[in-house]
Design brief:
38% helix, binds iron/sulfur cluster
Amino acid sequence: MMAERATRDSIQDIWGPRTPYLGEGQWPERVDERTIDEPERWVQSCCLLCSNGCGLDIGVKGGKIVGVRGRADDHVNRGRLGPKGLHGWVANNSEDRLTQPFIRRGGEFQQATWDEAMGLIVERSKEIIDEHTGKAMGFYGTGQLFIEEYHVIAMIVKAGVRTPHKDGNTRLCTATAEWALQETFGSDGQPSSYADVDLCDVWLLAGHDVSATQTVLFARVLDRLEGPDPPKLIVIDPRVTAVARRATVHLRPRLGTNLAVMNGLIRLIIEAGRIDAEFIDKHTVGFEGLKRTTASYTSEKVEEISGVPAAELRRAAAILGSTRRLLATVLQGFYQSHQATAASVQVNNLVLIRGMIGKPGCGVLQMNGQPTAQNTRECGANGSFAAFYNWANPRHMEELARAYNVEKEWFPTYQPPTNVMQIMRYCEIGSIKFLWIIATNPAVSLPDLARIRRILAKDDLFVVVNDAFPTETTALADVVLPAALWGEKTGTFTNADRTVHISHKAVDPPGEARSDFDIFRDYAARMDFKDKDGGPLIKFQSPEDSFDHWAAMTKGRLCDYSGLSYAKLSARSGIRWPCNEQHPEGAERLYTDFQFPTGYDECESWGHDLKSGAEISPEHYKAHDPAGRAILRDADYVPPVEEPDDSYPLWLTTGRIVYHFHTRTKTGRSKELREVAPDAFAQLHADDAKALGVADGDMVLVETRRGKIAVPARVGDIGREGRVYDILPGHVFVPFHFGNWDDPERPRAANELTLSYWDPISKQPYFKYAAARVSKITGDPKAAAATGTPIVEKVKSALGFGQETAGAIRAGKKIDQYVGLLDAAERELGEALTGMSERHPLESEIRAACSKFARWTDAHLETLKPLVDRFGAKDDGEPKRLRAGMFQEDRVGGLGLMRDVHDLWLLAQDAWICWLALEQVAKALEEKVLIETCNQNGGEAGLIVAWCQTQFKTHIAQALLMG
Ligand code: SF4
């Protein structure tokens, strides 16, 4: 007999009844539970449906999950669960789970055994690595696996396949968090925790709609607002959300203007003298630059740029400048925008100039979007390397290589890690030929979907997808592997406030589904990946082995897990890192000693210039070593790349709704969540709707320059808690969760419309704005939005790879272009050097040097011969044309000499950059001798460049002033 039980109706009452704080930091328990049958046993776990990480138990009966209940002893939620946590687990029991592998044959999916599927994946991998190296392989993962899985995948990709092309879908939600933290504090790692939510006097929420993204965290705030000493909320968000409705001050900037608003707030605080001068002086660098840059952002100028009334900006600054305990949080409203990192860093700056860090109730949380996004970054399963090591610092790579027991040269550190949009571009142009997509759905979640579908459907791209369900992306795969979900495997993960939970296996996965840990362990074994001693690269027999290895290798790092074990994590509910000898119970906040990991040899990155996005060179960083001080980086506002115009007069913005997660692969399979939020929509301001002749519920066509969708309109203030509220005039909001797996006919994914641009530092795409137009649909919505191409590609012509014969694809396919360019550049440089001796016979120093350099170029040409034989040499005559326009006949005297040195410098640069190109290729091919040759010859070309510069600096003033 079924015994359904729910302690509350989270669909109607999203955040649940109020349980006001009892006193400072005392948040009462409230255990939420929902079961569809009486559990036989409860298994310790944690919710995996947003970054909050609420501790829960999984109820099990008859080998099935039958419910969940919150864990009262967990400091994250004190027993509470939100609608997704209480309902999303039913996806595990869904009828349409993938239960066996599939291989596409002749354009159709056919069932396969694991042996057949893995055999094919390994065969393709080996063919591609043999022909092109691992750099022709890409991996795109998720923010929903466990530490144990990320750790194995990172080791395989970076030390087995050895490709830099690994990213996670965390690029879409938390890449800016990672970079904003690195730019300011030298390293990823959240400085604060939810303990500070309990204690703050003012909470600044920058682009962070906590009411929709982390419902239990919002319940925490609501309880503080009802308890003693409630905090003030300052909200920056163009929409009127549930949290904005509770704000003391709500700033509503136009899309894309966050940086101007932040600069304005900082200026007001500095001008009012509300800064902690002693803290700034002792513990930061860069204050003068910040002051200088923000000085011009008067409140009136900010109002002009952003639409935020000057008086409101001043009101917010007065509160932020006078509070004793300031906490700031940042999320997608800042992250998914242009100048994402620059704007998010200003939130760090605001906290720092007020000296509000490392203290109770203070600090900043650059929030995460997905449940295990933090681990993707920590474990090196996105663009970064594990344990916050700096990929560009050889000393760091040595330490990491020791931890993995591999050679550091195996790591693909010859170039920065590749972000997902660049991975897609490489797939598009054919330089990545194998893409493994792990537990994510890029055919709905990436921008400009028509293009993404075209890429994934390419016949010369071999696509493998691990997932638990058929999705828009599995439809485009060559091999589909059925994956186990949360509750069907054991592992650990870390939430947005550094709390680590263990989630024990409660039930078996359905059919033949396997955990990603097992899938990748199997792949490593079949590929025969070795460590440096010839043993298996992946030695872990169980997830616990992987965790123990991970915990040990983080000892002494900022994200120190060395005090954690499965036993310790199972004995209680949630422990924060760092957990070590110094903090055996975990630490509530970082940087309590105001020492930041910014030292040259300590930091995770040397950072970027926020204005240009250019990397800061190690030499420059070393020369200005912050050595433990936080860095205040500044930047000016620039307008977005696309703004409304006559053809597309509205601002489109996209975002979440409370009832769904990511692309609904899980939440869309809950009846209750599906029924309360069944479809995408376009939210319009009432004035805009009236002008367009659109009423609430009418079907509308939303169009941008990328595509169009047909969705119902929602007009103005809908008025239901947790759904959507008011929006600025001129704006239209579309939720991003809805794809087409359950509605294949009508285009409705927000990303049909979005821009394929990204922040230059974090590489996070701009989902928050684009220029759009909206019109009412009077006929058939499917016909109105039809594009002539299917939304979900059902047919991919054949097994992708193999359209070109392997033999025709040589590892030097395009290298001939740069070998030819270099050969010609060295030849022209050599002739120019020889000519210099003749043209300036009385310039002894010049003659001697040029003769020597000419011998170098002869030697370079000799070393190029085998490369010409191997790769071929394509010469389009460019270096010859370059020299033909140089070295004019009539050049005499000091100025004539300098003009010739100038020309020589240009030719030497040409040769130098060609050597650099070949050196990058040599590194990608892992050919040590070729690397050394390029390094040596390129170094000599660089010396010629430097010599020219020296000559120029020495003589040019004399030549220009005296003739
Ligand atoms: S707030 Fe997030 S982690 Fe907590 S129950 Fe809801 S979805 Fe799960």
